Amino acid sequence: MKKFLAVRIFNILVTLFVIATVTFFLMKLLPGSPFDEEKLADLSDEARMEFYARYGLDQPVYVQYAKYMGNLVQGDLGISYYYKGQKVESLISGRIGPSALLGVQATILGVSIGLILGMIAAFRHNTAWDFFTMFIAVIGVAIPNFVFAALLQYYVGLKWGILPVAFWESYDSSILPTIALSMMVIALIARFMRNEMLEVLQQDYILTARSKGLSQMKVIIRHTLRNSMIPILTILGPIVVSLLTGSLVIENIFGIPGIGSLFVDSIKVNDYTTIMGLTIFYSTFYILTVLVVDLLYGIVDPRIRIAGSKG
Amino acid sequence: METLLEVKDLNVSFRTQAGVVKAVRGVNFKVNKGETLAIVGESGSGKSVTSKAIMQLLPNQTATYDSGEIIFDGQNILEINDKKMEAIRGSEIAMVFQDPMTALNPTMTIGKQVAESILNHNKNVTKKEALQRAVEILELVGIPEPAARVNQYPHQFSGGMRQRVVIAIAIACNPRLLIADEPTTALDVTIQAQILDLLKDIQRKTGTSIILITHDLGVVANMADKVAVMYAGRIVEQGTVEEVFDSAEHPYTWGLLKSIPDLDADEELYSIPGTPPDLLSPPIGDAFAARNEFALAIDYEVQPPMFAVSETHSAATWLLHEKAPKLSTIVQEKESVRAKRKGKKNLTLAQPIIQVRDLKKHFRMSGDSYLKAVDGVTFDIKKGETLGLVGESGCGKSTTGRTILRLYEPTGGEVYFNGKPIHGDLKKSDENTIRQKMQMIFQDPYASLDPRKKVLDSVAEGIDIHKLAASAKDRKDTVQNLLEIVGLNKSFMNRYPHEFSGGQRQRIGIARALALNPEVIIADEPISALDVSIQAQVVNLLKDLQHKQDLTYLFIAHDISMVKYISDRIGVMYLGSLVELAPTDELSKEPLHPYTQALLSAVPTPNPKIERGRERIILSGDLPNPINPPVGCRFRTRCPYAMEKCGETPIWKEAQPNHWVACHLIE
Amino acid sequence: MTNSTLEKYEKTNIEKNEMNNFDHLFKEDSFKVVGAKKDSQDAITRPYVGIFKESWLRLTKNKGAVVSLVVLSILIILALIGPYMNEYTYDETNYEKAFQEPNSEHWFGTDKFGRDQWTRIWEGTRISLYIALLATVLDLVIGVLYGSISALVGGKVDNVMQRIIEVLVGIPNLILIILLIMLLKPGIFTITVAMVITGWVNMARLVRSQVFKLKNQEFILASKALGASNSRLIKEHFIPNTLGLIIVNMMFTIPSAIFTEAFLSFIGLGLQEPLASLGVLINDGFKAMRNNFYLLLYPAGVIVGLMVCFNLLADGLRDALDPKMRK
């Protein structure tokens, strides 16, 4: 088990190193700069060099790279080009709150509704219920989340005026974006749960359980649910991705001061250090999620637990 | 005797995409207290559906009970509500399923799975008491160290041990009726002997009635008091085990009994022609008529009723009607059809066509461990003979066959074909020759044909590869001819594999192998996926082809009785090595190796008289893990005669002329 | 042997009247031995249906798939001919006619520059479909080659190729696409390339696992035993048996490519004015949503229609091509 963990962590570090390097050089290759070139041109040579020196841009690329990587190890993501004088890590930590709230809410809402829909579809297999829930699942995957968010904003916010249209003012402001964000999660989970349950319900051990004289309810709770919910862990990775990318557009649409809108804004103003910092942040978050999922899988599934402890 | 269960005129049908399948069509039988009823039939005969109907375990979305009654202990199970049925299930009637690998919940400890049943039916038992009782039951079914193992999960047990756990669950509440649905089909034969023994032991101790669902007449002869034979959804004959085995009245029962090789009789194996009918549209009259050589005109028109032969014996055939021709004349006819077995081949002077020398094939597993699937086997196959290779799962018999055919590169050793080595770098022309001269028939008739190819193209594949056909017409004619040889209608050429039954597919596979006029055919479990009546067809076809086309066979199988019938010599493998090799008669009459003795003794014969008085050698324990086999003689961990010397690897020696063995007992 | 005289019918089995009915059924030669019937023994009773026709029949039984197929055809035809159905072009501005609601002149209204929205939407649909198809085809080519080489060669090569995939999978791919587009500057081709750089991985993994599964199938071994060369195995067995999977995966890739393109346009990394794609139009529509909702509604409707239909059709195809569904 320890060996397994060590190998995994080593792999993660390699992946992160590759990502940081690639991002760094991509940014160096980018045309244009975050600064107002015209204004810079007006400055004297000395003043301009001094300006560049402030951002470490006067040195050769490899030195910049070494410095950046060195700082990165210490958790220093550099200074934002756009938000003058602000450190990228403090920018991120300052704006992570709303994103985290939305993410957690959307996960809870999405997973619980998704599970319920999936179960209904499986138990009422080949009925109108099944058809209806699966239609919702297809719609959830098929409608682009920004279209859905825009429609929600228009109807619920503007036309009917039930909930705040945008901005981060009260808890109510988080409701619409949460719904918009959770739609994809609902769809993914509902579909997966349905297929898993249908699979499990056909297994011989369900017959064994029924032949013990257990009631339908007990068979479901003790034998079906656990075994069909374990594999859902495997799609948590894709779900996190859908939440991350969803947050980029949805935070923008609803004007939420989270890291998703920070990322999109940075793109618009060529704030390279912030883009790099966020890329590394997102990647780390994603990779750690996948690791946690794998570890959890080992805990909930005895087959893997045993195999893991041997190796 | 008191009746425990009575099934009256049960009819069950299933809705499928293709239409309504009438799986059970008017079944009647009784089970008395303490007795064992075996329901025998081939796949699709309705035997499993009947047993699940008694348990009310059929999927209620697709299955419907069209009519009938199932009376258990005075009440009709088909009419009681779910609550009452739940109270009966597991406590009054319990069930053992076929495949122990899938019948247990993988994420629940076995202790909980056994205790669950106890808790469910005894309201005032605590969890702790239930678990304690589970330990006792697991001990009863022969799980070693049950107190420690209750906390383990199913995947930590071997197949045989898991089946014991399944049985433990079934008997946890002392049911009055135990339904065992093919309880040993998925197990190796030495493990089967253990499980059958256990079931009998349980019956002796608890007096439970057993309904045993099986396709294996040997198991029936061993276990049953009464037998019901099912065909196409109906019971065609039932009676005591002696009545059915000794004086069968229904032609299907005759056919089945004669389809099983009987080593003592020198007769050609009888095979029932054709395949069972499609129950989407069951035939009018007797469903068996189309395959029945002695069918009467009325058989094609009116379904025969059950005619009673004695108090306990009855059969559904018009042959028992007073106007029907006398049975004796038919029997004479029947006997005349069955030719005497062809004279024994004289192979003592035959040259070896294949020589296998110290062949090894190791597979790399995860990490640095190796699975030594084949670990140094040496033998010859003589021209024109059939060499049988038997052993239990994981013994390396299939790997041996595949390595001989160059489907795997060996780890060590060599194989010679007509004196020339066949592995390593060969000239293209030599390789082509070997490819044409040696062919293979596979086990799984569903996986061995490309689902996206027509029969014509599958059979013609070898012809295409070696460019043997001059024209498209030539190719087609050859395939047509091959299909005729294996007994298939040539109109099948343009159809796809999924339209055929297992036996038909196996014939297509044989035709494909024959297309290159091979000299040697390696048949890898060619009949183990087939029904009994179809097995006989395929074996007869193989024998016939050998005779006509001068073929040499390596016949790999786990069913030793069929191997005994077809083979001239038999080799026995255990965990990657050959333990004994001898002419068939000698091996079956005087087996030298303790494993061969146990293997032969474990196979039940379809003869109740023999089975009743038989003392079995029952091996204890399971097959060791082939990744980490015992040092020295690999059989020593299960061998009743194991001694200190067995820690050394025994030498492969010719103990008697033509009789090879690897055992320290034989000097 | 028991004699053959009819002793008695078993009473429990047959109703009395039914029993009596038998006698009149007997004819003179009823009890003549006629023997087995060879032709009906082995007969295949179910009608013959070709493999493609069968899949097609199953697909057409799926209502969702059929409706999707029809709607998709209409949308594709409109994408092809829609822009030519009136006299406007997609970049023709007319400031006097800005922000017109849908009317008989401009069927879908006009945008802030007075451009005809009908023309722009179908033009945009065409570009979106074009990008999606191109990306999907490139994914297909790279993914199938990579996956099949990895599986067929196996061993160390497979190991290395799998490590590369693992690193790629470790990065959230939309982020990578965004970075690439910032580098390459948005355009039809660069957007496609950026999507393909990570998009092929999924196809490669699917193909690899399918080929691995096939490799150990008995029909492949049988073919090897007959002496088939590797190229023959690939051509005759691997490709035909992987095709269904590839087609289904392609059908799922197209909508996700449509989505990605629209997503990029929406966050400002899409095509530049005056070019339009569905994403660009939705972005414009969103900005003008408050007063001119129709500008959002129509392109949103088209994209939702495309996505839902492709997904439903892919679902239907998956079921129709699944060999397990065959009986």
TrEMBL record, chain A:
GO biological process terms held by the UniProt record: transmembrane transport
TM ranges: 12-30, 100-123, 135-155, 175-193, 232-255, 275-300
Compartments in which it is found: Cell membrane
One Pfam family it belongs to: BPD_transp_1_N
GO CC terms of this entry: plasma membrane
Domain ABC transmembrane type-1: 96-297
Entry superkingdom: Bacteria
Record-linked InterPro entries: BPD_transp_1_N (IPR045621), MetI-like (IPR000515), MetI-like_sf (IPR035906)
Membrane topology: Multi-pass membrane protein
Keywords linked to the UniProt accession: Cell membrane, Membrane, Transmembrane, Transmembrane helix, Transport
Protein name from the UniProt record: Oligopeptide transport system permease protein OppB
Organism: Pseudoneobacillus rhizosphaerae
Lineage, broadest ranks: Bacteria, Bacillati, Bacillota, Bacilli, Bacillales
UniProtKB/TrEMBL annotation, chain B:
Location in or out of the cell: Cell membrane
Family matches, as InterPro entries: AAA+_ATPase (IPR003593), ABC_Ni/Peptide_Import (IPR050388), ABC_transporter-like_ATP-bd (IPR003439), ABC_transporter-like_CS (IPR017871), Oligopep_ABC_C (IPR013563), P-loop_NTPase (IPR027417)
Record key words, sorted: ATP-binding, Cell membrane, Membrane, Nucleotide-binding, Transport
Residue ranges annotated for the ABC transporter domain, each copy included: 7-257, 354-600
UniProt keyword Membrane present: yes
Main location: membrane
Any single GO CC term annotated in Swiss-Prot or TrEMBL for this entry: plasma membrane
A GO molecular-function descriptor: ATP hydrolysis activity
Superkingdom of the source species: Bacteria
Example GO BP: peptide transport
Membrane topology of the entry: Peripheral membrane protein
Keyword Ion transport appears in the UniProt entry: no
Matching NCBIfam families: oligo_HPY, PRK10419.1, PRK11308.1
Family to which the UniProt record says this protein belongs: Belongs to the ABC transporter superfamily.
Protein's UniProt name: Glutathione import ATP-binding protein GsiA
Organism: Pseudoneobacillus rhizosphaerae
Phylogenetic placement of the source organism: Bacteria, Bacillati, Bacillota, Bacilli, Bacillales
Gene symbol of the encoding locus: gsiA
UniProtKB/TrEMBL annotation, chain C:
Gene3D superfamilies: MetI-like (1.10.3720.10)
GO CC annotations on file: plasma membrane
Alphabetically ordered keywords of this record: Cell membrane, Membrane, Peptide transport, Protein transport, Transmembrane, Transmembrane helix, Transport
Highest taxon listed in the record's lineage: Bacteria
Transmembrane parts of this sequence: 65-85, 127-152, 164-182, 188-207, 238-258, 294-314
Localization, UniProt: Cell membrane
Entry keyword Transmembrane: yes
BP term (GO), one: transmembrane transport
Domain ABC transmembrane type-1, residue spans: 125-314
Membrane topology: Multi-pass membrane protein
InterPro entries per UniProt: BP-dependent_transpt_permease, MetI-like, MetI-like_sf, OppC_N
Pfam families per record: BPD_transp_1, OppC_N
Chief localisation class: membrane
Similarity annotation: Belongs to the binding-protein-dependent transport system permease family. OppBC subfamily.
Protein name: Oligopeptide transport system permease protein OppC
Organism: Pseudoneobacillus rhizosphaerae
